[in-house]
């Protein structure tokens, strides 16, 4: 059974909406922030697993678009890396970025130690460390081919298994740890002010040099859409040259790094001049579409039989990572962030994205502020670091481990 390019993309889109449907039918999937593309893609991979087990025909997919979709998504992330955003968050953003970058290194060192104890490749521990926990499923699947080439068999399947477990754990643990800190130190936020306006402002993590275009007709909307696609494609194109130049030095980097750097340069140039007028909302929308289709397409092709025999070391590593995150969050992360109420809420959000995704972080912090009061600083700092800046530094950390131990 073979699916051509159009059929593969069409099936990916159908499975994506199956995932959304499953979120509505099974509410706890949404509460745990399990992404709809992951749900739909895993349904397909489990179906393929049963086909392999029972000797049924295994479908073959044309995944030609998988790579450009991945690069397009990380390119849109690159457009978010603004120096001006760092100024908005102030020292807290820079401090948290340094903390979680160091934490990413510790995640990898711990994972490597446990992997070696189980007789596994040390890079197995890195793959189940900051690659999939701090990075999430997209980063895990992006780096999987490099880990596969370095000798980690079934890297994509391992990556998605670790990322899924991390999403669940991060959503469950962040709130209790932050609540412990709040109650132990008798901290509270201002309850009367509410947090919805602050959260909305914090999540508008864009500094537009000119007013956003409000299209009033189809021609204006088409212009914005076309402009967005062309800008992203130009960044991807120029980024390919940057990646080639870096790789020519012997440094192993995923191909999306060059595109992210190119996008960041374009973003900061536009922040200073306003000449391009980047349509940030449209860029984000394009990135969300690219990521959703990429995740479904990548998960459809997973061979889950490659996880056989790796369950025990994977469970041990994830358990140890959970203990590490909880311990370091209580001390020293909470202390470094200021030991106040905002620091406690930010710590809860940090646990969310250090083990799962930024969606976990936001869900944890929303729960905390509904109970204990508003935390404007946390809703500014945690999303800036978790959604954007850590992708850059974590990629450098992962690349360093790959080049040292690959």
UniProtKB/TrEMBL annotation:
Its main location: membrane. One of its GO terms (cellular component) is plasma membrane. One of its GO terms (molecular function) is glutamate:sodium symporter activity. InterPro entries: GltS. The keyword NAD does not apply. The chain crosses the membrane at residues 37-57, 69-88, 94-116, 123-146, 158-182, 224-246, 281-302, 308-331, 343-364, 384-405. It is a multi-pass membrane protein. GO terms for biological process: L-glutamate transmembrane transport. It is found in: Cell inner membrane. Keywords: Amino-acid transport, Cell inner membrane, Cell membrane, Ion transport, Membrane, Sodium, Sodium transport, Symport, Transmembrane, Transmembrane helix, Transport. It holds the Pfam family Glt_symporter. Catalyzes the sodium-dependent transport of glutamate. Belongs to the glutamate:Na(+) symporter (ESS) (TC 2.A.27) family. This is Sodium/glutamate symporter.
